Amino acid sequence: xxxxxxxxxxxxxxxxxxxxxxxxxxxxxxxxxxxxxxxxxxxxxxxxxxxxxxxxxxxxxxxxxxxxxxxx
Length: 72
Prior knowledge:
By secondary structure, this protein is of the alpha+beta class. The chain is built from two helices and four strands.
């Protein structure tokens, strides 16, 4: 999301998560999402951003799932 502030990206991820949670599927039931959100830091390699964001995703999963976690 180029040009998007971290707080706005977090809110978008949360809206997506809530929308999916409100949907019911006849086969799987309630759909849940765990998401990691990160923002590029000036001078940071893209691989570092991806690693931090991936760590946030796993933090969301291990903290109970169905939530958004922000990379530090």
